[in-house]
Amino acid sequence: MTSKPTLDDGLRARKRAATQAGLEQAALALALEHGYENVTVDMICDAGMVSQRTFFNYFGTKEGAFLGTPPPMPADAELARFVRGGGADVLGDLVGLITAALVDQEPDPGILRSRRMLIERTPELLGRENTRITELEESLTLLVLERFRTQGRSEEFTPGLEDEARMAVTLAGSVMRFSMQKWFTGGFTGSPGELLRHSIALARRIAAAGNEAPPS
Amino acid sequence: MTSKPTLDDGLRARKRAATQAGLEQAALALALEHGYENVTVDMICDAGMVSQRTFFNYFGTKEGAFLGTPPPMPADAELARFVRGGGADVLGDLVGLITAALVDQEPDPGILRSRRMLIERTPELLGRENTRITELEESLTLLVLERFRTQGRSEEFTPGLEDEARMAVTLAGSVMRFSMQKWFTGGFTGSPGELLRHSIALARRIAAAGNEAPPS
DNA sequence: CGTCCTGCGTGCAGCTACTGTAAATTTATT
DNA sequence: AATAAATTTACAGTAGCTGCACGCAGGACG
User: Of the four, A36, A130, A196, B18, which is 20 to 30 A from A175 by CA?
Assistant: First the structure.
């Protein structure tokens, strides 16, 4: 039952990958030209030379072809490092973790960039993308909890530990969304790493403001 | 052409409101019983005794009937107060602003609560709700900028001012999402106001952590 | 009161996303 | 080459959603 590695390099797998890539590219190109709403699934199928049914076998939904492969969950190695190697900077480490996952998800920066452009200008896709991030947050929260425990913080002694984990993840998500938007629309001049550090610093500063002077 | 106040109290308007409320309640009740996915628009129409076409005249989309009236944009008075009366606590003030808008949007807490429950357990609705928040953030960002300018901070002297506004709004959105979820699922024992303060404090604490001790 | 007008509800025809099913085609295995 | 397993496809059907044109009732006006 376990001895069927399902070759990644057979003719079968190669064709599959080609078809999928073709459909994704076609979808992206069509949407950038005509706008997401004006692209029908049938158009994409024509361009990719498959039946509509096959399209749905691949992506399940129209949006799927535009958003790319679903959940950018980090690799185990990264996860372990995050859980064990972490210091006090949960926020920074989380952002780094998510970023790494996003990067090795789609090697082609060109695709990635046009995809982001499309998403940014299409409310429906933007919403769906945010939903994905939210779903990802679910599992990240567990990770953070794990990390907290590794650091010796138990739920018994800190009642709000789970809340703290969830909030940390939520904040990280905010930083990611902010950075993405700035990167793909605002024309940030600098490396992604800089941008992320900049975003985090900004978040810290704003969160801190108003802390010393509580309202009347 | 512009001088038609469209009475809010005529028989017409009352009927309208009744129909809409009826449909919303029916939708909510049906979804809580059968699950969102298993409720068809036709079912809601039957329960509300209107044609399908009328349903879409009211809500435009199936989700609309479940999410309630679209954008909880604050009243002008609140807005003015936010822009002018603000101190350094942008985050807190923003959260207060959004909360106020949400509250006087739906006077009935029962409806509000069951709606939240449904949304929370329905990924599709959750996503759509997030999209709404995102759209709202667009205009809130402008507000924050306005406030900054009122406080004498000009874009000329602080290049990142727009970024700062957007980040503030994004963070406020995070706090709101966190609070909502905690309130409607986690069973928070206390007043909404307390919960919000708690959330903000938590966000501040996490953002601050790791600030003093940069990674090696 | 009667009349006109305008807003609103409705039926209908049609498009698009999406799914189940079973047959046809292609690739892998022996 | 024969068989098995994986994919693709055609076909039919459901559900969300829209444009259009008709009819009726609420409301303004004389």
Answer: A36
Q: Enumerate the domain spans of chain B.
A: 11-67, 76-208
Q: Any idea which fold A11-67 has?
A: Arc Repressor Mutant, subunit A (1.10.10)
Q: Kindly report the CATH class assigned to B76-208.
A: mainly alpha
**Shortest Cα–Cα distance, B93 to chain A (Å):** 9
Q: For testing the chain A interface, which of B135, B171, B177, B178 should be mutated: the one with the most A CBs within 10 Å?
A: B171
Angstrom distance (rounded) from CA A51 to CA A44: 10
Name the pLDDT band for B5 (thresholds 50, 70, 90).
very low
Query: What is the band of B71 on the pLDDT scale with cuts at 50, 70, 90?
Result: low
Residues 6+ apart with CB under 8 A from A201: none
What is the per-residue pLDDT across A96-130, written as a single tens digit (0 to 9) for each? 998 888 877 776 778 888 998 999 899 889 888 88
User: In 10 A of CB A161, how many CB atoms?
Assistant: 17
- The four Cα atoms B44, B50, B52, B56 give a dihedral, to 10 degrees, of -90
Q: For chain B, what is the total number of helices (H) and then of strands (E)? A: 10, 0
Question: CB–CB of A204/A168 below 8 Å?
Answer: no
Q: Count of CB atoms within 10 A of residue B179's CB?
A: 23
Q: Is the CB of A58 under 7 A from strand C?
A: no
* Cβ contact A95:A200 at 8 Å: yes
Asked if residue A199 lies in contact with residue A179, where contact means CB atoms within 8 angstroms, the answer is yes
Nucleotide C20 C1' to residue A54 CA (A): 14
